[in-house]
């Protein structure tokens, strides 16, 4: 009786392969092809060569969106890589009532992004909680335009992303911290190393791989940000659309009966390359670090 | 060996490339629309499908009653009723149209019907029904006639418009007379200044950015006659934006309106944060239901300038296999009798000329709710489509973004309008 027939591996991978082909490969190829057309949701379209990409070069909103994405990534990356690690180290300790803090830190993750953004909108508006408190305390003389100034709106969205992401990455770090040998900490403590030195020389190297993974996840999600900016800017990307992200532009161009699928596909390709570059850089850094 | 390995890859690539390009196809948009092959006297029988937008479960018995009456009037007919949820209706219709499965009779507002008519997916119902222009109000019929195309691509079903609502308490606090509210935009600006100055900047009257409708009201031409170019970047439009920018800078409007979605105006009114909003004839009931403290404080008045006309209609699919029954059903559902019955269970207004004399719509019982309904009904007589249906969602967004940039004072009004027109033209021709 033979169990290892040649097709057995294929049978096992066919479900995953089918999924990959239908929902990943085919849409990807379709997007590339559509980016060279002026296709609409109904009525089709024609090949227009590189016209969509030429338009991209002169699209002022895309320039703002790319700048926003880069700022988003640059600000989110250090905060969301380091702060959740510190939180994880804090809540890892077995102290009475620590479960409450673990749950509290994780709560923003399970809350819907839309609900959270709406609450933040209420907190940050001209007569919202933050401005009201600050004015009462005499810190500011007039309300700060968190939701109507281009840069403050971006900063508000970034703060929201960081606040919402802390708990998620904290959980990943908690799992990684469990793999850092307790005996290393004990040995270092015996040798006279304080908590800070143990954190720098034992904890950080111990979770280095996880930090790289988290950095990649943060970079990708920061570059693909949508909900926070969309909700806080009332779905319009702020004055002049200058607080749009690339995903918001894709949504804007592809919406409705007259959606411009060709241009939206060209934007998707730009987003793909913008997302892949930092991913490759971080992966390379990881490899170099591992070899060293 | 190498060839054997390459073969499946090549086959896969070929299959992928064949499958890809989904969304491409014949771009056979026409200018004449699809013409019916039957006339109004054709025999009505057989199956026909009918799609409505979010009428279940609130109006199930009404719609079922109309369908039953239709089937009784035309023995041998059978209507299959589909009702789609309110959210995502455009996406549903889009997927039906893309798959060639549009129901025989579909509820489509004019801006949904336009792209379908361009692709010859809707019948020119006026070609089969010469009485259309005589029986339905002009604005309703015109809503389904598009620049650069010949034909009428839907029966107007029901209409609505906006009137103004004022907060009497806030008016009194500012020393303004709510019984004599602003009647023009300039009076509105003057009242906004009074409200700001008298309350130390704590109360707002206005909370709305201008849009295409305001340009139309100011007599600015939005679109060229052939419908191929936007033309609203005029000095008059810039002057209008300048007035809004100055009012915004002076603090007469909440600063966050630059990022508020369209409904922000009525939301703020409901939250008792601003003293003016626009809304349909039944909006007063919603304000008072959502915020009972507003009861007795909301005063309606006719809209400033020309009120907008909102139209819902029934279009007939060009692919219907039963044109006679589909046209008859669309006409039956939208006839004066059925529309009047519908308008009495929900606050909408009939699009039939015969309903104009119905005292139910034209006489108030003296309550603010009834006053609002009568005002809205009277406003319909001069209401117009203020925004051309060719302005798609994306175009509207880009125009709104440039307007908010101008109001924020970051760029001049003229520069914002030029940028908006350039982008709108690009989206129109792409």
UniProtKB/TrEMBL annotation, chain A:
It holds the Pfam family BPD_transp_1. One of its GO terms (biological process) is transmembrane transport. It comes from Kribbella kalugense. It is a multi-pass membrane protein. One of its GO terms (cellular component) is plasma membrane. This is Carbohydrate ABC transporter membrane protein 1 (CUT1 family). CDD domains: TM_PBP2. It is found in: Cell membrane. Keywords: Cell membrane, Membrane, Transmembrane, Transmembrane helix, Transport. Its main location: membrane. Residues 66-282 form the ABC transmembrane type-1 domain. Signal peptide: none annotated. Belongs to the binding-protein-dependent transport system permease family. InterPro entries: ABC_transporter_permease (IPR051393), MetI-like (IPR000515), MetI-like_sf (IPR035906). It comes from the Bacteria. The chain crosses the membrane at residues 7-26, 70-91, 103-123, 151-176, 206-226, 261-283.
Automatic annotation (TrEMBL), chain B:
PROSITE patterns: PROKAR_LIPOPROTEIN (PS51257). The keyword Cell membrane applies. Residues 1-20 form the signal peptide. InterPro entries: Bact_solute-bd_prot1 (IPR050490), SBP (IPR006059). SUPFAM superfamilies: Periplasmic binding protein-like II. Keywords: Cell membrane, Lipoprotein, Membrane, Palmitate, Signal. It comes from the Bacteria. This is Carbohydrate ABC transporter substrate-binding protein (CUT1 family).
């Amino acid at each position: 009786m033979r169990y290892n027939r040649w097709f057995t591996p294929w049978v096992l991978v066919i479900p995953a392969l089918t999924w990959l082909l239908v929902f990943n490969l085919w849409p990807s190829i379709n997007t590339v092809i559509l980016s060279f057309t002026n296709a609409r949701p109904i009525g089709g379209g024609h090949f227009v060569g590189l016209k969509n990409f030429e338009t991209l070069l002169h699209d002022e909103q895309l320039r703002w969106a790319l700048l926003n994405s880069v700022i988003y990534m640059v600000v989110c990356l250090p905060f969301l890589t380091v702060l959740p690690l510190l939180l994880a180290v804090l809540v890892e300790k077995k102290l009475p009532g620590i479960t409450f803090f673990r749950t509290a830190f994780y709560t923003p993750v399970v809350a819907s992004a839309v609900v959270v953004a709406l609450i933040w909108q209420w907190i940050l508006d001209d007569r919202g909680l933050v401005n009201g408190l600050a004015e009462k305390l005499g810190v500011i003389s007039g309300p700060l335009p968190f939701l109507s100034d281009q840069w403050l709106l971006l900063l508000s969205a970034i703060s929201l992303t960081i606040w919402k992401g802390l708990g998620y990455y904290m959980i990943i770090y908690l799992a990684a911290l469990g793999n850092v040998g307790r005996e290393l900490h004990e040995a270092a403590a015996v040798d006279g190393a304080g908590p800070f030195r143990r954190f720098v020389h034992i904890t950080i190297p111990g979770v280095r791989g996880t930090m790289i993974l988290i950095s990649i996840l943060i970079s990708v999600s920061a570059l693909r940000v949508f909900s926070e900016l969309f909700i806080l800017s009332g779905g319009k990307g702020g004055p002049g659309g200058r607080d749009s992200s690339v995903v918001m532009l894709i949504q804007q161009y592809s919406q409705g009966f007259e959606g411009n699928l060709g241009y939206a596909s060209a934007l998707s390709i730009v987003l793909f390359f913008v997302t892949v570059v930092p991913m490759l850089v971080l992966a390379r850094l990881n490899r170099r670090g591992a070899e060293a | 060996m190498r060839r054997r390995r390459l073969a499946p890859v090549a086959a896969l690539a070929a299959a992928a490339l064949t499958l890809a390009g989904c969304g491409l196809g014949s771009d056979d948009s026409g200018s004449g629309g699809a013409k019916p092959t039957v006339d109004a006297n054709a025999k009505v029988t057989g199956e026909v499908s009918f799609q409505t937008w979010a009428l279940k479960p609130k109006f199930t018995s009404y719609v079922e009653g109309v369908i039953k009456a239709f089937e009784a009037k035309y023995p041998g007919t059978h209507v299959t009723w589909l009702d789609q949820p309110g959210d995502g209706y455009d996406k549903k219709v889009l997927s039906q149209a893309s798959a060639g499965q549009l129901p025989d009779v579909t509820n489509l507002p004019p801006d949904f019907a336009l792209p379908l008519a361009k692709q010859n997916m809707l019948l020119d119902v006026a070609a089969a029904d010469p009485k259309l222009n005589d029986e339905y109000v002009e604005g309703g019929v015109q809503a389904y006639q598009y620049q650069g195309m010949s034909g009428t691509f839907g029966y107007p079903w029901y209409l609505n418009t906006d009137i103004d609502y004022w907060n009497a308490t806030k008016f009194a606090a500012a020393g303004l007379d709510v019984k004599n509210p602003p009647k023009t935009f300039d009076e509105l600006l003057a009242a906004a200044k009074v409200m700001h100055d008298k309350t130390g900047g704590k109360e707002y009257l206005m909370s709305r950015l201008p849009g295409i409708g305001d340009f139309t009201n100011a007599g600015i031409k939005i679109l060229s006659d052939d419908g191929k170019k936007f033309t609203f970047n005029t000095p008059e439009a810039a002057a209008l934006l300048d007035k809004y920018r100055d009012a915004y800078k002076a603090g007469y409007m909440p600063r966050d309106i630059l990022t508020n979605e369209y409904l922000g105006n009525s939301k703020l009114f409901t939250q008792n944060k601003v003293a003016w909003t626009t809304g349909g004839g039944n909006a007063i009931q919603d304000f008072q239901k959502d915020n009972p403290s507003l009861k007795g404080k909301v005063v309606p008045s006719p809209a400033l300038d020309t009120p907008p006309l909102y139209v819902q209609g029934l279009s007939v699919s060009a692919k219907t296999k039963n044109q006679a029954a589909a046209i008859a059903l669309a006409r039956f559902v939208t006839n004066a009798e059925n529309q009047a019955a519908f308008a009495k269970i929900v606050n909408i207004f009939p699009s039939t000329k015969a309903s104009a004399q119905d005292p139910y719509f034209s006489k108030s019982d003296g309550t603010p709710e009834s006053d609002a309904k009568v005002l809205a009904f009277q406003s319909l007589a001069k209401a117009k489509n203020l925004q051309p249906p060719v302005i798609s969602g994306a175009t509207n967004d880009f125009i709104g973004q440039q307007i908010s940039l101008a109001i924020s004072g970051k760029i001049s009004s003229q520069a914002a309008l030029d940028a908006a027109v350039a982008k709108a033209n690009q989206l129109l021709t792409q």
